[in-house]
Amino acid sequence: MNESDFIASYDPSAFERPSVTVDLVLLTIRDRSLQVLLVERTEHPFIHQFALPGSFVPMDETLDEAAQRVLRDKAGMPPTFLEQLYTFGDVKRDPRMRVISVAYFALLPHSALGHIDPDHRDLATVNFTDGGAGVFTNDGVRLTLPFDHGQIVATAVDRLRAKLDWSDVAFALLPQEFTLRELQEVHEVILGRPLNKPAFRTRMLGTGRLEPTGRQESGHRFRPAELYRLKVTQ
Amino acid sequence: MNESDFIASYDPSAFERPSVTVDLVLLTIRDRSLQVLLVERTEHPFIHQFALPGSFVPMDETLDEAAQRVLRDKAGMPPTFLEQLYTFGDVKRDPRMRVISVAYFALLPHSALGHIDPDHRDLATVNFTDGGAGVFTNDGVRLTLPFDHGQIVATAVDRLRAKLDWSDVAFALLPQEFTLRELQEVHEVILGRPLNKPAFRTRMLGTGRLEPTGRQESGHRFRPAELYRLKVTQ
DNA sequence: ATAATAGTGTCTCTAAGACATTATATT
DNA sequence: AATATAATGTCTTAGAGACACTATTAT
Questions:
Q1: Pairwise CA distance, residues B205 & B226, whole Å
Q2: Which residues of chain A have a CB within 8 Å of the CB of B147?
Q3: What pLDDT, on the 0 to 100 scale, is given for residue B209?
Q4: What is the SS3 assignment for B55?
Q5: pTM higher than 0.85, yes or no?
Q6: Domain B177-230: which topology?
Protein backbone atom coordinates (compact mmCIF):
# COMPACT_ATOMS: atom_id res chain seq x y z
CA MET A 1 0.00 0.00 0.00
CA ASN A 2 1.47 3.35 -0.97
CA GLU A 3 0.96 6.62 0.81
CA SER A 4 -1.98 7.99 -1.19
CA ASP A 5 -3.85 4.67 -0.92
CA PHE A 6 -3.21 4.73 2.79
CA ILE A 7 -4.60 8.22 3.18
CA ALA A 8 -7.65 7.43 1.05
CA SER A 9 -8.45 4.37 3.15
CA TYR A 10 -7.73 5.98 6.50
CA ASP A 11 -10.67 5.86 8.88
CA PRO A 12 -10.75 9.00 11.00
CA SER A 13 -13.40 7.55 13.30
CA ALA A 14 -11.22 4.66 14.42
CA PHE A 15 -10.28 6.35 17.67
CA GLU A 16 -12.31 8.36 20.15
CA ARG A 17 -11.37 12.03 20.05
CA PRO A 18 -11.62 14.96 22.45
CA SER A 19 -13.43 18.19 21.63
CA VAL A 20 -11.29 21.26 21.10
CA THR A 21 -12.27 24.80 22.02
CA VAL A 22 -10.63 28.20 21.99
CA ASP A 23 -11.10 30.49 25.00
CA LEU A 24 -10.24 34.16 24.90
CA VAL A 25 -8.67 36.31 27.62
CA LEU A 26 -9.25 39.90 26.56
CA LEU A 27 -7.42 42.31 28.84
CA THR A 28 -7.68 46.07 28.97
CA ILE A 29 -6.84 48.85 31.42
CA ARG A 30 -9.44 51.10 33.01
CA ASP A 31 -9.12 53.38 36.04
CA ARG A 32 -5.57 52.27 36.71
CA SER A 33 -6.47 48.58 36.93
CA LEU A 34 -6.38 45.55 34.67
CA GLN A 35 -9.75 44.33 33.47
CA VAL A 36 -10.80 41.10 31.78
CA LEU A 37 -13.80 40.57 29.53
CA LEU A 38 -16.30 37.98 30.76
CA VAL A 39 -19.59 36.87 29.23
CA GLU A 40 -22.58 35.35 30.92
CA ARG A 41 -23.04 31.71 29.92
CA THR A 42 -26.38 31.01 28.25
CA GLU A 43 -26.13 27.22 28.39
CA HIS A 44 -25.31 24.40 30.76
CA PRO A 45 -22.96 23.78 32.40
CA PHE A 46 -22.48 26.79 34.69
CA ILE A 47 -25.43 28.55 33.09
CA HIS A 48 -25.78 32.25 34.05
CA GLN A 49 -22.27 32.34 35.47
CA PHE A 50 -19.67 34.65 33.99
CA ALA A 51 -16.88 32.97 32.05
CA LEU A 52 -14.32 33.64 29.34
CA PRO A 53 -15.76 33.91 25.83
CA GLY A 54 -15.01 30.86 23.73
CA SER A 55 -16.11 28.51 20.99
CA PHE A 56 -15.65 25.00 19.73
CA VAL A 57 -13.14 24.73 16.90
CA PRO A 58 -14.88 23.63 13.71
CA MET A 59 -13.16 21.33 11.23
CA ASP A 60 -12.47 24.01 8.64
CA GLU A 61 -10.97 26.74 10.85
CA THR A 62 -7.44 27.09 12.10
CA LEU A 63 -7.01 27.87 15.80
CA ASP A 64 -6.05 31.47 15.02
CA GLU A 65 -9.13 31.90 12.84
CA ALA A 66 -11.37 30.51 15.55
CA ALA A 67 -9.88 32.91 18.09
CA GLN A 68 -10.35 35.85 15.72
CA ARG A 69 -13.96 34.84 15.21
CA VAL A 70 -14.58 34.75 18.96
CA LEU A 71 -12.99 38.17 19.30
CA ARG A 72 -15.28 39.47 16.55
CA ASP A 73 -18.52 37.76 17.58
CA LYS A 74 -18.48 37.93 21.34
CA ALA A 75 -16.61 41.16 21.71
CA GLY A 76 -17.19 42.95 18.41
CA MET A 77 -13.60 44.10 18.21
CA PRO A 78 -11.42 45.75 15.60
CA PRO A 79 -8.06 44.16 14.80
CA THR A 80 -5.67 44.25 17.75
CA PHE A 81 -3.09 42.21 19.62
CA LEU A 82 -4.01 38.52 19.63
CA GLU A 83 -1.73 35.56 20.28
CA GLN A 84 -1.96 32.00 21.48
CA LEU A 85 -1.47 31.67 25.24
CA TYR A 86 -1.46 28.06 26.39
CA THR A 87 -3.43 24.85 25.91
CA PHE A 88 -5.32 23.43 28.86
CA GLY A 89 -6.03 19.71 28.68
CA ASP A 90 -6.92 18.28 32.06
CA VAL A 91 -9.18 15.27 31.67
CA LYS A 92 -12.01 16.55 33.89
CA ARG A 93 -11.77 20.29 33.25
CA ASP A 94 -15.21 20.23 31.60
CA PRO A 95 -17.94 18.17 33.32
CA ARG A 96 -19.65 17.33 30.00
CA MET A 97 -16.85 15.47 28.29
CA ARG A 98 -13.19 15.65 27.38
CA VAL A 99 -12.54 19.18 26.16
CA ILE A 100 -9.11 20.55 25.34
CA SER A 101 -9.02 24.34 25.34
CA VAL A 102 -6.50 26.40 23.40
CA ALA A 103 -6.46 29.73 25.24
CA TYR A 104 -5.82 32.98 23.39
CA PHE A 105 -4.72 36.29 24.79
CA ALA A 106 -5.93 39.64 23.41
CA LEU A 107 -5.25 43.26 24.36
CA LEU A 108 -7.30 46.34 23.59
CA PRO A 109 -7.34 49.97 24.75
CA HIS A 110 -10.33 50.67 26.90
CA SER A 111 -11.57 53.32 24.49
CA ALA A 112 -12.16 50.61 21.86
CA LEU A 113 -14.44 48.72 24.25
CA GLY A 114 -16.74 51.66 24.89
CA HIS A 115 -19.43 50.79 22.38
CA ILE A 116 -20.39 47.51 24.04
CA ASP A 117 -23.71 47.79 25.78
CA PRO A 118 -23.30 46.91 29.45
CA ASP A 119 -27.10 46.71 29.88
CA HIS A 120 -27.17 43.47 27.94
CA ARG A 121 -25.03 42.02 30.72
CA ASP A 122 -23.07 40.49 27.92
CA LEU A 123 -19.96 42.21 29.13
CA ALA A 124 -18.70 42.19 32.68
CA THR A 125 -15.44 43.94 33.21
CA VAL A 126 -13.85 42.95 36.46
CA ASN A 127 -11.06 44.37 38.50
CA PHE A 128 -7.93 42.41 38.57
CA THR A 129 -5.66 42.40 41.60
CA ASP A 130 -2.33 40.70 41.88
CA GLY A 131 -1.08 38.40 44.62
CA GLY A 132 -2.86 35.26 43.47
CA ALA A 133 -4.48 36.73 40.38
CA GLY A 134 -8.01 37.11 41.69
CA VAL A 135 -10.93 38.33 39.63
CA PHE A 136 -13.42 40.77 41.15
CA THR A 137 -16.58 42.49 40.04
CA ASN A 138 -16.69 46.26 39.90
CA ASP A 139 -18.41 46.12 43.28
CA GLY A 140 -15.39 44.40 44.79
CA VAL A 141 -16.93 40.92 45.07
CA ARG A 142 -14.50 38.13 44.32
CA LEU A 143 -15.57 35.89 41.45
CA THR A 144 -14.82 32.20 41.12
CA LEU A 145 -14.74 31.48 37.42
CA PRO A 146 -16.14 28.21 36.05
CA PHE A 147 -14.01 25.45 34.50
CA ASP A 148 -10.30 26.32 34.88
CA HIS A 149 -10.88 29.88 33.66
CA GLY A 150 -9.35 31.40 36.78
CA GLN A 151 -6.12 29.60 36.02
CA ILE A 152 -6.30 30.72 32.38
CA VAL A 153 -6.65 34.38 33.41
CA ALA A 154 -3.70 34.05 35.79
CA THR A 155 -1.61 32.59 32.97
CA ALA A 156 -2.52 35.52 30.74
CA VAL A 157 -1.45 38.08 33.33
CA ASP A 158 1.86 36.26 33.83
CA ARG A 159 2.42 36.38 30.08
CA LEU A 160 1.54 40.07 29.91
CA ARG A 161 4.09 40.89 32.61
CA ALA A 162 6.77 38.74 31.04
CA LYS A 163 6.37 40.41 27.64
CA LEU A 164 6.14 43.98 28.88
CA ASP A 165 9.81 44.88 28.50
CA TRP A 166 10.63 43.48 25.08
CA SER A 167 7.38 43.48 23.08
CA ASP A 168 4.64 45.85 22.00
CA VAL A 169 2.02 44.73 24.51
CA ALA A 170 1.93 48.10 26.31
CA PHE A 171 1.10 49.92 23.08
CA ALA A 172 -1.76 47.51 22.36
CA LEU A 173 -3.40 48.85 25.52
CA LEU A 174 -3.15 52.50 24.40
CA PRO A 175 -4.81 54.49 21.63
CA GLN A 176 -2.72 55.21 18.54
CA GLU A 177 -1.46 58.49 20.01
CA PHE A 178 -0.49 58.70 23.65
CA THR A 179 1.69 60.67 26.06
CA LEU A 180 4.69 59.30 27.88
CA ARG A 181 2.76 59.65 31.14
CA GLU A 182 0.02 57.37 29.79
CA LEU A 183 2.60 54.85 28.62
CA GLN A 184 4.27 54.89 32.02
CA GLU A 185 0.90 54.42 33.69
CA VAL A 186 0.29 51.28 31.62
CA HIS A 187 3.64 49.89 32.68
CA GLU A 188 2.97 50.72 36.32
CA VAL A 189 -0.44 49.05 36.32
CA ILE A 190 0.94 45.87 34.74
CA LEU A 191 3.93 45.70 37.07
CA GLY A 192 2.00 46.87 40.12
CA ARG A 193 4.69 49.33 41.22
CA PRO A 194 5.71 52.93 40.49
CA LEU A 195 8.53 53.64 38.04
CA ASN A 196 11.15 56.37 37.90
CA LYS A 197 10.05 59.05 35.45
CA PRO A 198 13.37 60.27 33.99
CA ALA A 199 14.67 56.73 33.60
CA PHE A 200 11.44 55.60 31.99
CA ARG A 201 11.50 58.48 29.52
CA THR A 202 15.13 57.90 28.61
CA ARG A 203 14.59 54.20 28.15
CA MET A 204 11.46 54.58 26.02
CA LEU A 205 12.86 57.32 23.79
CA GLY A 206 16.13 55.39 23.58
CA THR A 207 14.44 52.44 21.90
CA GLY A 208 13.91 54.60 18.81
CA ARG A 209 10.44 53.10 18.43
CA LEU A 210 8.53 56.24 19.46
CA GLU A 211 7.75 59.05 17.11
CA PRO A 212 6.56 62.48 18.27
CA THR A 213 3.42 63.61 16.45
CA GLY A 214 4.05 67.32 16.96
CA ARG A 215 0.64 67.56 18.64
CA GLN A 216 -0.09 67.88 22.33
CA GLU A 217 -2.79 66.54 24.61
CA SER A 218 -5.42 68.94 25.92
CA GLY A 219 -8.22 69.05 28.45
CA HIS A 220 -6.09 68.81 31.57
CA ARG A 221 -5.47 71.65 34.00
CA PHE A 222 -1.72 71.29 33.77
CA ARG A 223 0.98 71.61 31.16
CA PRO A 224 0.03 69.44 28.16
CA ALA A 225 2.37 66.66 27.14
CA GLU A 226 3.65 65.77 23.69
CA LEU A 227 1.69 63.05 21.89
CA TYR A 228 3.69 60.10 20.54
CA ARG A 229 2.88 57.22 18.26
CA LEU A 230 4.57 53.85 17.73
CA LYS A 231 6.77 53.78 14.65
CA VAL A 232 5.56 51.34 12.01
CA THR A 233 7.45 48.02 11.76
CA GLN A 234 10.88 49.60 11.81
CA MET B 1 -33.59 20.81 32.77
CA ASN B 2 -31.03 21.30 35.50
CA GLU B 3 -27.30 21.08 35.10
CA SER B 4 -26.77 17.43 36.04
CA ASP B 5 -29.62 16.31 33.76
CA PHE B 6 -28.07 18.34 30.99
CA ILE B 7 -24.68 16.76 31.43
CA ALA B 8 -26.13 13.27 31.61
CA SER B 9 -28.06 13.78 28.38
CA TYR B 10 -25.26 15.51 26.53
CA ASP B 11 -24.32 13.80 23.28
CA PRO B 12 -20.57 14.11 22.69
CA SER B 13 -20.89 12.81 19.13
CA ALA B 14 -23.12 15.70 18.02
CA PHE B 15 -20.24 17.57 16.42
CA GLU B 16 -17.33 16.40 14.32
CA ARG B 17 -14.07 16.68 16.20
CA PRO B 18 -10.41 16.95 15.28
CA SER B 19 -7.77 14.51 16.46
CA VAL B 20 -5.26 15.79 19.01
CA THR B 21 -1.64 14.71 19.23
CA VAL B 22 1.38 15.69 21.26
CA ASP B 23 4.71 16.09 19.48
CA LEU B 24 7.99 16.30 21.35
CA VAL B 25 11.01 18.49 20.60
CA LEU B 26 13.84 17.00 22.65
CA LEU B 27 16.92 19.20 22.47
CA THR B 28 20.39 18.44 23.73
CA ILE B 29 23.91 19.75 23.19
CA ARG B 30 26.70 17.67 21.68
CA ASP B 31 30.02 18.77 20.23
CA ARG B 32 29.19 22.44 20.72
CA SER B 33 25.97 22.26 18.71
CA LEU B 34 22.26 21.92 19.42
CA GLN B 35 20.76 18.59 18.50
CA VAL B 36 17.15 17.45 18.20
CA LEU B 37 15.82 13.92 18.59
CA LEU B 38 14.06 12.50 15.53
CA VAL B 39 12.53 9.09 14.99
CA GLU B 40 11.93 7.25 11.76
CA ARG B 41 8.22 6.97 10.98
CA THR B 42 7.02 3.39 10.71
CA GLU B 43 3.61 4.25 9.21
CA HIS B 44 2.03 6.32 6.48
CA PRO B 45 2.08 9.20 5.85
CA PHE B 46 5.75 10.05 5.35
CA ILE B 47 6.76 6.50 6.14
CA HIS B 48 10.52 6.00 6.64
CA GLN B 49 11.10 9.74 6.97
CA PHE B 50 12.49 11.19 10.16
CA ALA B 51 10.08 13.23 12.25
CA LEU B 52 9.48 14.40 15.80
CA PRO B 53 8.32 11.68 18.20
CA GLY B 54 4.65 11.99 19.03
CA SER B 55 1.42 10.27 19.92
CA PHE B 56 -2.31 10.73 19.77
CA VAL B 57 -3.80 11.95 23.04
CA PRO B 58 -6.07 9.27 24.49
CA MET B 59 -9.24 10.23 26.34
CA ASP B 60 -7.92 9.45 29.80
CA GLU B 61 -4.57 11.25 29.69
CA THR B 62 -3.83 14.92 30.26
CA LEU B 63 -1.60 16.64 27.72
CA ASP B 64 1.31 16.67 30.16
CA GLU B 65 0.88 12.96 30.84
CA ALA B 66 0.83 12.16 27.13
CA ALA B 67 4.01 14.16 26.60
CA GLN B 68 5.70 12.38 29.51
CA ARG B 69 4.68 9.05 28.03
CA VAL B 70 6.18 9.96 24.65
CA LEU B 71 9.37 11.03 26.38
CA ARG B 72 9.48 7.71 28.20
CA ASP B 73 8.46 5.39 25.33
CA LYS B 74 10.19 6.87 22.35
CA ALA B 75 13.21 8.23 24.09
CA GLY B 76 13.46 6.16 27.24
CA MET B 77 14.30 9.15 29.36
CA PRO B 78 14.64 9.88 33.05
CA PRO B 79 12.78 12.87 34.48
CA THR B 80 14.00 16.17 33.09
CA PHE B 81 12.84 19.56 31.83
CA LEU B 82 9.54 19.27 29.97
CA GLU B 83 7.07 22.04 29.24
CA GLN B 84 4.35 22.83 26.76
CA LEU B 85 5.60 24.79 23.76
CA TYR B 86 2.80 25.79 21.39
CA THR B 87 -0.25 24.29 19.72
CA PHE B 88 -0.26 23.92 15.95
CA GLY B 89 -3.68 23.76 14.36
CA ASP B 90 -3.53 24.47 10.64
CA VAL B 91 -6.37 22.71 8.86
CA LYS B 92 -4.20 20.81 6.38
CA ARG B 93 -1.06 20.22 8.45
CA ASP B 94 -1.70 16.46 8.35
CA PRO B 95 -2.78 14.94 4.99
CA ARG B 96 -4.87 12.24 6.68
CA MET B 97 -7.36 14.40 8.53
CA ARG B 98 -7.68 17.35 10.86
CA VAL B 99 -5.00 16.93 13.52
CA ILE B 100 -4.22 19.53 16.15
CA SER B 101 -0.79 19.04 17.67
CA VAL B 102 0.21 20.27 21.11
CA ALA B 103 3.99 20.53 20.92
CA TYR B 104 6.15 19.92 23.98
CA PHE B 105 9.69 20.98 24.57
CA ALA B 106 12.19 18.83 26.51
CA LEU B 107 15.84 19.30 27.44
CA LEU B 108 18.37 16.66 28.42
CA PRO B 109 22.13 16.53 28.89
CA HIS B 110 23.76 14.53 26.15
CA SER B 111 25.20 12.07 28.66
CA ALA B 112 21.64 10.95 29.50
CA LEU B 113 21.00 10.07 25.85
CA GLY B 114 24.00 7.79 25.54
CA HIS B 115 22.25 4.50 26.18
CA ILE B 116 20.00 4.75 23.11
CA ASP B 117 21.07 2.36 20.42
CA PRO B 118 21.81 4.25 17.21
CA ASP B 119 21.85 0.98 15.22
CA HIS B 120 18.10 0.72 15.51
CA ARG B 121 17.94 3.96 13.54
CA ASP B 122 15.33 4.92 16.05
CA LEU B 123 17.30 7.95 17.01
CA ALA B 124 18.74 10.45 14.61
CA THR B 125 20.44 13.37 16.20
CA VAL B 126 20.83 16.22 13.80
CA ASN B 127 22.88 19.36 13.83
CA PHE B 128 21.03 22.55 14.33
CA THR B 129 22.20 25.76 12.73
CA ASP B 130 20.72 29.18 13.26
CA GLY B 131 19.71 31.70 10.63
CA GLY B 132 16.45 30.07 9.64
CA ALA B 133 16.58 27.16 12.07
CA GLY B 134 17.60 24.40 9.68
CA VAL B 135 17.94 20.77 10.62
CA PHE B 136 20.84 18.73 9.29
CA THR B 137 22.04 15.16 9.59
CA ASN B 138 25.41 14.47 11.14
CA ASP B 139 26.76 14.23 7.58
CA GLY B 140 25.74 17.83 6.90
CA VAL B 141 22.75 17.04 4.69
CA ARG B 142 19.81 19.37 5.19
CA LEU B 143 16.62 17.63 6.23
CA THR B 144 13.11 18.73 5.36
CA LEU B 145 10.91 17.48 8.16
CA PRO B 146 7.41 16.16 7.40
CA PHE B 147 4.20 17.92 8.51
CA ASP B 148 5.05 21.30 10.06
CA HIS B 149 7.77 19.76 12.21
CA GLY B 150 10.40 22.14 10.89
CA GLN B 151 8.36 25.06 12.16
CA ILE B 152 7.87 23.31 15.50
CA VAL B 153 11.62 22.85 15.94
CA ALA B 154 12.22 26.51 15.09
CA THR B 155 9.66 27.54 17.70
CA ALA B 156 11.42 25.41 20.31
CA VAL B 157 14.79 27.01 19.63
CA ASP B 158 13.25 30.47 19.88
CA ARG B 159 11.77 29.51 23.24
CA LEU B 160 15.07 28.11 24.45
CA ARG B 161 16.87 31.35 23.63
CA ALA B 162 14.17 33.50 25.18
CA LYS B 163 14.27 31.57 28.46
CA LEU B 164 18.04 31.30 28.75
CA ASP B 165 18.58 34.34 30.96
CA TRP B 166 15.86 33.97 33.54
CA SER B 167 15.12 30.26 33.82
CA ASP B 168 16.90 26.98 34.51
CA VAL B 169 17.01 25.74 30.92
CA ALA B 170 20.81 25.85 30.72
CA PHE B 171 21.13 23.57 33.74
CA ALA B 172 18.73 21.05 32.20
CA LEU B 173 21.32 20.59 29.44
CA LEU B 174 24.12 19.82 31.91
CA PRO B 175 24.80 16.93 34.28
CA GLN B 176 24.08 17.52 37.96
CA GLU B 177 27.63 18.70 38.59
CA PHE B 178 29.33 20.99 36.10
CA THR B 179 32.06 23.58 35.78
CA LEU B 180 31.52 27.25 35.01
CA ARG B 181 33.26 26.67 31.68
CA GLU B 182 30.71 24.02 30.73
CA LEU B 183 27.86 26.31 31.79
CA GLN B 184 29.29 29.14 29.70
CA GLU B 185 29.65 26.79 26.74
CA VAL B 186 25.96 25.92 26.95
CA HIS B 187 25.06 29.60 26.93
CA GLU B 188 27.36 30.27 23.99
CA VAL B 189 25.94 27.42 21.91
CA ILE B 190 22.37 28.55 22.53
CA LEU B 191 23.10 32.20 21.80
CA GLY B 192 25.49 31.45 18.95
CA ARG B 193 28.11 33.95 20.13
CA PRO B 194 31.04 34.03 22.58
CA LEU B 195 30.57 35.51 26.05
CA ASN B 196 32.92 37.44 28.33
CA LYS B 197 34.36 35.07 30.94
CA PRO B 198 34.74 37.34 34.00
CA ALA B 199 31.34 38.93 33.46
CA PHE B 200 29.73 35.53 32.98
CA ARG B 201 31.31 34.18 36.17
CA THR B 202 30.31 37.22 38.21
CA ARG B 203 26.77 37.12 36.91
CA MET B 204 26.29 33.39 37.50
CA LEU B 205 27.80 33.39 40.99
CA GLY B 206 25.89 36.58 41.76
CA THR B 207 22.55 34.85 41.27
CA GLY B 208 23.21 32.83 44.43
CA ARG B 209 21.77 29.76 42.72
CA LEU B 210 25.09 27.95 42.30
CA GLU B 211 26.65 25.86 45.03
CA PRO B 212 30.28 24.69 44.93
CA THR B 213 30.61 20.98 45.57
CA GLY B 214 34.17 21.17 46.86
CA ARG B 215 35.16 18.68 44.17
CA GLN B 216 37.02 19.37 40.95
CA GLU B 217 36.84 18.00 37.43
CA SER B 218 39.64 15.77 36.21
CA GLY B 219 40.88 14.14 33.03
CA HIS B 220 41.96 17.32 31.27
CA ARG B 221 45.53 18.36 30.66
CA PHE B 222 45.03 21.75 32.25
CA ARG B 223 44.14 23.17 35.62
CA PRO B 224 40.95 21.47 36.86
CA ALA B 225 37.94 23.67 37.59
CA GLU B 226 35.64 23.63 40.59
CA LEU B 227 32.46 21.59 40.16
CA TYR B 228 29.17 23.36 40.94
CA ARG B 229 25.61 22.19 41.32
CA LEU B 230 22.31 24.06 41.12
CA LYS B 231 20.88 24.85 44.56
CA VAL B 232 17.59 23.09 45.26
CA THR B 233 14.43 25.20 44.94
CA GLN B 234 15.71 28.10 46.98
C1' DA C 1 59.36 23.70 31.32
C1' DT C 2 55.16 23.98 28.40
C1' DA C 3 50.48 24.23 27.38
C1' DA C 4 46.07 25.24 28.47
C1' DT C 5 42.63 26.73 31.20
C1' DA C 6 41.03 28.50 36.16
C1' DG C 7 40.13 32.32 38.63
C1' DT C 8 40.64 37.32 39.83
C1' DG C 9 41.54 42.40 39.54
C1' DT C 10 41.20 46.85 37.08
C1' DC C 11 39.35 50.11 33.99
C1' DT C 12 35.66 51.84 31.21
C1' DC C 13 31.08 52.38 29.57
C1' DT C 14 26.20 52.16 29.84
C1' DA C 15 21.78 52.21 32.12
C1' DA C 16 18.88 53.15 35.82
C1' DG C 17 17.38 55.24 40.28
C1' DA C 18 17.10 59.38 43.27
C1' DC C 19 16.62 64.06 43.45
C1' DA C 20 16.23 68.67 41.96
C1' DT C 21 15.18 72.40 38.70
C1' DT C 22 12.92 74.85 34.87
C1' DA C 23 9.13 75.20 31.87
C1' DT C 24 4.21 75.65 30.54
C1' DA C 25 -0.44 74.82 30.29
C1' DT C 26 -5.35 75.53 32.92
C1' DT C 27 -8.01 77.58 36.57
C1' DA D 1 -0.99 83.89 41.16
C1' DA D 2 -1.60 78.99 42.15
C1' DT D 3 -1.28 74.36 40.75
C1' DA D 4 -0.11 70.29 38.63
C1' DT D 5 2.53 68.05 35.52
C1' DA D 6 6.16 68.24 31.46
C1' DA D 7 10.74 67.80 30.42
C1' DT D 8 15.56 67.90 31.56
C1' DG D 9 20.05 67.88 34.23
C1' DT D 10 23.17 66.00 37.84
C1' DC D 11 24.92 62.60 40.86
C1' DT D 12 25.42 57.97 42.26
C1' DT D 13 25.29 53.06 41.85
C1' DA D 14 25.17 48.53 39.58
C1' DG D 15 26.43 45.53 35.95
C1' DA D 16 28.82 44.10 31.87
C1' DG D 17 32.64 44.10 28.44
C1' DA D 18 37.62 44.33 27.50
C1' DC D 19 41.99 43.21 28.98
C1' DA D 20 45.55 41.60 31.73
C1' DC D 21 47.59 39.01 35.26
C1' DT D 22 48.41 34.89 38.59
C1' DA D 23 47.51 30.28 39.69
C1' DT D 24 47.39 25.30 38.93
C1' DT D 25 47.16 20.98 36.74
C1' DA D 26 48.80 17.17 33.18
C1' DT D 27 52.18 16.00 29.98
A1: 13
A2: none
A3: 92
A4: strand
A5: yes
A6: Arc Repressor Mutant, subunit A (1.10.10)
